[in-house]
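Researcher: Quick one. two chains, 305 residues in total.
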Amino acid sequence: MSDTRKSLVSALSYRDPRAAIAWLEKAFGFELTFLVEDADGNVGHSELSFGSSAIMVGGEWSENHASPASIGGKNTQSIHIRMTDDVDAHCARARAAGAQIIAEPETQFYGDRTYRCRDLEGHIWTVGAPVEEVSIAEMEARSGHKISTPS
Amino acid sequence: MSSKILVALRIAAPPEAVFDAFVDDIALWWRPNPLFSFTPRSPGVMAFEDGRLVERLASGKVFEVGQVRVWERGARLVFGWRQASFAADQDTEVEVRFEPVEEGTRVTVEHCGWDSVPTDSVARHGFPDAVFLQRHGQWWRGLLAGLAEQANSR
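Model:
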């Protein structure tokens, strides 16, 4: 069997992974592709796909794994969702599901339209889609920064 | 029934075609796994016949994996799943859902009831529960990949 899975996969910790899975399906349009639940209904392992990528969702399964909800909302990494669809519609869907919108959709100087939100347990997500092709020179003019490119 | 394995996959064919491939072509897409064989004489040839899922063994014997409990073409299929080593009170169930999506069908397999099979059962090979369910789920992943290939080649 050919393995088409990506080399990098993020694994997120939630206090209530079952609720998180349902929320991520509803808010972001993720699709559950793999789930193992033990006899008590606890999530042992799960995978959700979006576009060509996937994430894993689990509990706070060791002393060193915590949901932002357990550590004052702190995030030590966040996931960026890169899409091609309508970012404003995606934001509206997330908001309707209860996402806390931290930054409303806005077109950035580099040509992506993005928004930023917190999910039901405080994980921060950014979402973006390209809406405009911007040259490096134009990015520099808009941002006022020198943007070097690898040579 | 608890202890659940869920595996889902999108297949680029209509729900009826995927359903037909699942039940009519199971001998073609099935991939026997020696860890989870139904009988000591497996593998045989899988088939849905007379309202049940069976494995036809080389000896000519037919092993009944389980009765079909729901048969809704293009939508839902539910059948029992027992290994020869199961005691009378041990039973698991497989539910397969076929949902239409833009590109074709989202097929979801839910395999429940492994909590009825004790952890020291020969069927579990001494694996801790989580490891057993994980490995069994990976097998289902491979099976659905086989189903996808078969459904696309019909």
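Chain A has a mean pLDDT of 93.
Researcher: Thanks, that's what I needed.
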